[in-house]
């Protein structure tokens, strides 16, 4: 009996341990019998255990990205800062952002009617003459001022075009965009790398600001540098050869035009020399006779010219005068015979002209 009791006592723990192991099995089986629609997150992760550790980590990362709500990040807002205001608040700038400057608004006083030049426009151009102002950042901050000055110049040219057509009917009635020059400089082949011109300008010819024809050129520039010019500046090779051929045949008409007393009054005596006067003394003038022409030719002074152009400068007070347009018309009237003479000499050979007369 004692032995049997002992065996019974020792068997009891083993039975107990067996029953304790069966409990979790039943629990796991109960778990697997749940509906497929209610699969838990643990089941998704358990399937990943059969894969490699690296892929399992990627699965978990993709899962977390899909579950975790994305946070919307707001881009930093810039607050406009008005110059000199006490109500200015700190700017909410992002990384790498900085204040470039304050935009300067166009002046609301000192405006003039169409066909006149205001002091506001001259003030803007005078600032462009300063190296510290003639850069893209300064120009961008003063864009409203530039736009107002540009519109004023367009209105001026539109009025002048109508007046010029009355003087020279060979000038077509083109809109300002076809005669105005851009304010942006071409700095590719220049030692001066300032990006902007310091004056407004426009050119008028039979084909607008471009073409082979002689022109009328108007420019306003502070510092008594405004001017009107007329003629042919550096004509093309074919046009220059035609002019020289006509001069060799007969230079009478050209000499009469540049010797007219009114023409001489504004542009000087037509005599070559060290100083610039009339059509002589330009930087591109030849020092020797052109190829194929003897240096003893009676018109060698004309034949050495590379450009056939004259110019007259105005004081700032004249430009700002309400009568400046009329002043330009008077100068255009003086230069009209010169422009027409050059157009004939560069486009019609003397032989062809003689054949028409016959």
Automatic annotation (TrEMBL):
Residues 72-82 have a biased composition (Basic residues). Residues 1-94 are annotated as: Disordered. InterPro entries: CHP02453. Transmembrane segments: none annotated. Residues 33-53, 85-94 have a biased composition (Acidic residues). It comes from the Eukaryota. NCBIfam families: TIGR02453 family protein. This is TIGR02453 family protein.
